[in-house]
Amino acid sequence: MVAAASVVVAIGTVSGMLSALDGRQDSDTARPEVTSSPYLAPLPAVPTPSSASPSASPSASPSPKKKASPSPSPTKTEKKQSPAVSTRLYRYPESQVLEWVRANDGDPRHAVIASRIADQPAAVWFADFTPSTITSRVRAVTAGGSTQGRVPVVVPYAIPGRDCGGASQGGAPDLDAYDDWIDAFAAGLGSGEVIVILEPDSVAQTECLSAGERGRRFASLARAGRVLKAANPKARVYYDAGHSGWNAPAKQAGWLRQAGAASAASSDGVFSNVSNFHRTDDEIAYDRQVLDALGGPAGLGAVIDTSRNGNGAPADGEWCDPSGRKLGRTPTLSTGEARIDGYLWVKLPGESDGCKGAPGTFTPSYAYELAR
Predict the structure, then answer these.
(1) What is the pLDDT of residues 108-140, one digit of tens each?
(2) Alpha-carbon gap, residue 129 to 149, rounded angstroms
(3) What SS3 class is residue 351?
(4) For a Cys staple, 272 with which of 59, 148, 150, 241, CB 3.0–4.6 Å?
(5) Has this prediction a pTM greater than 0.85?
(6) Angle at CA 318, nearest 5°, toward 18 and 351?
(7) Furthest CA-CA distance within the chain
């Protein structure tokens, strides 16, 4: 069984890829656009990092946990180019990495983390169940994107029974409350372009649910997609396809169909590899298989999380801050690949899964390891 879920820290206002509590940060605790999407070139020698030890960031945010990988793809030679910053995707100006960059100008890792991670647009997560503030918090992100003429990426992450009661358990108390929360979330989407990554793990990780529970969750997800797209016709809603090392394409597509992912009224396609490490080429092939099995309108596509997959998944299947990983392709909505709508940084690089730092917090030592 493939390990799943997302390590989450309960949070308040949105900040960067996830949500924030307040503005304090130390030097070892603790956003993303369209042209070509190169890999980042490797850097030379590692500077000596500051002596500060990792500690939980007050702007901790939900940091989706990676699923275990059976075996990585063969190593491929990667392009060595300078990072290109997308001109279409929106970088929200409040995030854990940006807070760290602003507070640690003298840290020897500063330039690398600032240019290779903080300068890139990334998703903004909403993982705490706060019905009274969710509309205004979502609106703050989408309005910022509209003002700049750029596309924000938002992640609603409050499905009941989240993570099958694991490390990222939480969310709404029940599906009725979740439906109301989604209504309030949708009210903040505005009228501009926005990408919605609807509930990571919510479809791929449902083996822990009974058939009845699974059916009720899928009905709620189908409703969520309809509500989001009705609230903003320019919203592009993507459903959880897991990743290439998890469920077989036909099985995943069957679940996705029940969750509304094959309907133009609720879906623009699927997303994969969120918080994982599988190579982009493997995800492209897998997503196309899922889409073929899913059916639905010809326009359905896929987006792939490339934030940490530059070296592929570790051979031992480790999902928690595995060593030897690197940044993947920079975020873009121009992939040059049929049916692949975008490469996104859904998981913000450097936000720990819970092994190299407190779960959901930005850990500069980990970020630097990925970026260099």
Answers:
(1) 999 999 999 999 999 999 999 999 999 999 999
(2) 29
(3) strand
(4) 241
(5) no
(6) 20
(7) 55
Please state whether beta strands 153-156 and 13-15 pair in parallel, antiparallel, or not at all (unpaired): unpaired
pLDDT in tens, 247-273: 999 999 999 999 999 999 999 999 999
Q: Could you count the other beta carbons within 10 Å of the beta carbon of residue 223?
A: 18
What's the Cα-to-Cα distance from 199 to each of 85, 155, 259, rounded to whole Å? 26, 7, 11
Domain ranges of the chain: 13-43+61-67+79-371
How far is residue 133's CA from residue 126's CA, in Å, rounded to a whole number?
A: 11
Return the number of other C-beta atoms located less than 10 Å from residue 221's C-beta. 29
Report, as residue numbers or ranges, the catalytic residues: 163, 201, 353
- Strands 153-156 and 124-126 turn out to be parallel
What is 24-61 written as a DSSP string? ---TTB-----S--PPBPPPSSPPPPPSPPPB--TT--
Whether the CB-CB separation of 283 and 73 falls below 8 Å is answered with no
Question: What's the pLDDT tens digit per position in 98-109?
Answer: 999 999 999 999
Provide the token pair at 313.
Answer: 């998944």
Distance, in Å, from the CA atom of 95 to the CA atom of 234, rounded to the nearest integer, reads 25
Q: What is the pLDDT of residues 279-291, one digit of tens each?
A: 999 999 999 999 9
For the chain, the straight-line distance linking the first and the last C-alpha, in angstroms and rounded, comes to 33
Decide if 346 contacts 16 (C-beta within 8 A). no
Contact 112, 72 (CB under 8 A): no
Helix (H) or strand (E) holding 303: strand 301-305
Q: Which CATH architecture has domain 13-43+61-67+79-371?
A: Alpha-Beta Barrel (3.20)
Strand ranges of the sheet holding 153-156, from the earlier edge strand across to the other edge: 124-126, 153-156, 194-197, 235-240, 269-272, 301-305, 340-344
Collapsing DSSP to helix, strand or coil, 281 comes out as helix
